[in-house]
Amino acid sequence: MTGIPPVAGRAMAWIASLRSGLPEVAELDLRWLQRFETVLTGLLATYPIDPTVEPESRSRRLLRIRGELARTGHLGAAVAVRDGGCGRAMVIQTLMQFICGYYDVDLRDSIGLGHGRLIAAHASAQVRDRWLPQLLAGALPGIAITEAHGGSHPQATTTTATAHPDGTLAISGTKIWISRLAEAAVFCVFFTDPAGRLSAGAIDANAPGLHRHPIPPSGLTGWAWGELHLDGVLLRQCDLLGRPGEGMALLREHFAHYRPLVAATALGAAAAVHDTVAAHLNARRSAGIIAEVRDNALITVGRAYAQINAALLAALMAQRLSAAGDEAAELWGCAVKAHCVDIAYTTTGELTLLVGALGFAADSALAKARRDLNGLLYADGIHDSLYRTAGRMLTAAAPATAIQLPRPYQPHGPRLGRLATAGTAGSAPGDRTPNLR
User: Fold this and answer.
1) What burial class does residue 349 get, using C-beta atoms within 10 Å of its C-beta: 0-12 exposed, 13-18 middle, 19+ buried?
2) How many Å apart are CA 177 and CA 333, to the nearest integer?
3) How confident is the model at residue 104 (pLDDT cuts 50, 70, 90)?
4) Which of 217, 228, 337, 426 is deepest in the core (most CB within 10 A)?
5) What are the CA-CA distances from residue 299 to residues 22, 43, 244, 275, 431 (Å)?
6) What's the predicted TM-score (pTM) here?
7) What pLDDT shows up at residue 153?
């Protein structure tokens, strides 16, 4: 890999600086996270996944890393004990996602159940018993929602189920822009059931009638991507996720949990770019290539540091709300994912300019980070659509009563106060709100 080497072992420095804002994270948790970073960097040395490795080899190595993290007990760290995990707080997985993103956004699926959480939370006992052990051992889950009309309106899905006399369903349709296309062991597929309702089911990736059409992506190249064609794929009643017609409720609850993890991964990538650029500028100054770092560069580095940290705290808050089942979790999940990826993408672009042409080589880690973050602007919810959803929820929940403004400031006594409140005739007794018409 040409260009500037990434700064290793620094992800925990960002997390440690937030220690006072992480009351649920104990000193032992910090040490455990430090060990996780050490284990991960060791695996990356053994199974390199840098941009010079061709995509197929990268995906095999990523699966190997996921399997090794499963073997060492890291994959299921924040998975509930009832699902076979260690039961650590979800905030811990959010921080682990930050560490993964720091080294490569393609490591976003290295820990946790990912979309397999839909199986853990909503599948029948039979399906849970089949898939959870495999997922916790390193198998990869996928999700199939998006179609040609887009992913923002899953209720309009044209993938349909036809009922058979024995109770099974035959699923037919085409899903597009599907990640983990070739590597997933199981897909959580959303479809319109025979009653016209959005439903979901767990489908074996090797099921007859399931066909793939890969499309090379420009970013997020760690996993295969493209179209998933379903031609009469059979789904048993026990393979349904939740009850028939609960598709939208499942999606809303799941992505309230999943999107803060995506946000943390993106911010990890931005933090790595920040450290790499800061180290590069310092090295140039130390070598005498430049006398001092210019003010505009210092401002960019300082502003990016503040933006990344603030966004990470917001992602952690969103994950707390999701873990608590708070009614604001969906709102925060939408807004935080969009905001954090926006921040990560913008700061990475601004920071990369400070190193010049080195940051724009095709096999540069900085260039790869920009491509991956550009992909995350669209993956798991397009940022504009997420902002719009958040705005819709906020305006729908707006209070019906007008906001009462405070009494105007009266620095020069009662006469100015009378002038300032003139024109309030018709106000209710005791209403000190100025006439704003």
Assistant:
1) middle
2) 21
3) very high
4) 337
5) 27, 36, 54, 15, 47
6) 0.88
7) 76
